[in-house]
Amino acid sequence: MLALASDLGPHRVWGVVAGAGYAVAAVLACGARSRPAARVAAVAGAVVVPLVSLVTAGLGQLEVTVVEWSGQLLLTTGSPYVTAPAAVAEFNPYLPGMALFGVLPGDARWWLGGAFVAALAAAGLYRAWLLACPLVALPLAVGGIDLPVVGLMCLGVVLAGQGRPGRAGLALGAAAALKWTAWPALPVVLVLIAVRQGGRPALRYAAVALSTATAAVLPFVFANPSGFYRSVVAFPLGLTDTTSPAASPLPGHLLATYVPGGKVIALVLLAVSALLVAVSLVVRPPGTARAAAARLALGLGLATALMPATRFGYLVYPLVLGAVAYRMPRRGSATATPVALSREKALV
User: Fold this and answer.
1) Rounded Cα gap, residues 303 and 278, in angstroms
2) Coil, strand or helix at 227
């Protein structure tokens, strides 16, 4: 369907190649002995082959160009932002940490996808079926900006559930330095650690997470405040003359486009949903990593649906976090045991 319906060249290429890969995987999956081969075929057909083809042809979503250009700006000017951007390609709506993927050699997609896979592997959550899922495989091949963010979020939640607040803070601080979408994870994991381990570990986590994010972001805010505001704040909120191309037909965008006063309605609904999730952290705080991941999946799913300027690619957040929650143990102690605390002191 994507190969026929999309007006984006990279998406059509992915649709054709991935469709063939999924078809081969479906045939192989019919036999019990060939199911491992089916997983290989799905990953190869949906991720590896289209990614190599698109990189070789120099095709990708605009976000890849933006990241690579911001990396070059960082090297040449000391800031990943243009002071007075005008064209869409001149806006860099990501936080400064994302520019590091543009500094590294080669196509940024290799590093974005590699960071995602590495984060899931470090958390013990890597699964071939998740990599081959269309909502993950498509961005891996054509863009991938959100993947390292959600990967680090998953790693942070898992580390917090294991009683490692310092490392959880480092992972989530790094995610928060990449994109605003990681910031809702900070209070959710704070509550998780406070419930499981108490106030002091929660404060340690908060100190590490906030200091990591602040050290990565604040210097670039001071270096180019106008460029940072225009690209990272004004552009995503629709406060510039250049509009964001993020316009997938999700409820928030449909309200803003077709209903009088719909943008205000969508923003009010977004604020109400955020408030309800925040209240739920107080009324029913998550006591396990599974519950924290599920709460994040719910909150980010609502945000994706209700934002006036949004795109289907943001659904990777609730998908991956929901899958992580599904794979985690259903039960976990509400408080840390002495063994867990002693292990945490040794590791953090």
Assistant:
1) 13
2) helix
The angle subtended at Cα 315 by Cα 90 and Cα 194, nearest 5°, is: 100
Q: How far apart are CA 300 and CA 284, in angstroms?
A: 18
With the CA atoms of 216, 307, 235 and 13 taken in that order, what torsion angle do they form, in degrees rounded to the nearest 10?
A: 90
Each residue of 150-159: pLDDT tens digit?
Answer: 999 999 999 9
Q: Which residues contact 284 (CB under 8 A, 6 or more apart)?
A: none
Region 202-219: what's the mean pLDDT?
97
Decide: 79 and 224 in contact? Cβ < 8 Å: yes
Residue 232 has pLDDT above 80, yes or no: yes
- Within 10 angstroms of residue 268's Cβ, the number of other Cβ atoms is 12
The pLDDT-based confidence of 346 (bands split at 50, 70, 90) is very low
Q: pLDDT tens digits, residue range 12-70? A: 999 999 999 999 999 998 877 778 899 999 999 999 999 999 999 999 999 999 999 99
pLDDT given at position 2: 67
**How many other C-beta atoms lie within 10 A of the C-beta of residue 334?**
9
| 269 CB neighbour count, 10 Å cutoff | 17
Which of the 8 DSSP states describes residue 229?
I
Q: Give, in order, the Cα–Cα distances in Å from 53 to each of 24, 114, 141.
A: 19, 17, 9
Q: How many Cα atoms are found within 13 Å in the side-chain-facing hemisphere of 345? A: 7
**Rounded to an integer, what distance in angstroms lies between the CA atom of residue 43 and that of residue 130?**
9
Q: Which residues contact 39 (CB under 8 A, 6 or more apart)?
A: 25, 128, 129, 132
DSSP state string for 12-32: HHHHHHHHHHHHHHHHHTTSG
Structure tokens at 178: 């990449």
* DSSP string across 85-103: --SGGG---S-GGGGHHHH
Cβ atoms within 10 Å of 121's Cβ, excluding its own = 12
93, 65 in Cβ contact below 8 A? no
